[in-house]
Amino acid sequence: xxxNSTALTLFVTHRRALVDYASSITGSRxxxxxxxxxxxxxxxxxxxxxxxxxxxxxxxRIVRNLALxxxxxxxxxxxxxxxxxxxxxAENCPDETxxxxxxALFKDEIRCVMAAMAELPERTRIAFEMHRFGGATLKEIAAxxxxxxxxxxxLVTDGAEHCKARLAKR
Length: 170
Hints:
Layout: H1 3-26, H2 29-47, H3 55-80, H4 83-92, H5 100-119, H6 122-132, H7 138-145, H8 149-169
Helix pairs in contact: 1-2, 1-3, 2-3, 5-8, 6-7, 6-8, 7-8
């Protein structure tokens, strides 16, 4: 049996216990799972082409060191960022709820744009909608409509200019 397959067998055999061990240090099973995977990568790299006398002990030591580092990092972050910081940040956040005037203005603008789009020739309207509302590229629009990319760009531009002109007139 090669040293790599021996290392893998050791890891697979002790994986659950390693996760339990890391969980007891970090307090989080999810973090422990990630740490054990990181430990395996480090252990596998260190054991390649070398005989490790106490491979199991070395693997546990890697897990312990990673878990302790994670625990220290979390404790440091918790000291730096408190719940009061989050509450203060929430208070300082501007209210993003639109005013009734803003809602009315945008509803009016949407009606105007929809009316302008209804006035467009069908191919121009389709190209404009695909680009602005569907996120389609000019190449995708050209393929869909069976036209050149430059004509697709012209149709999208014409649609946008028409809508802009209608908005300016209101």
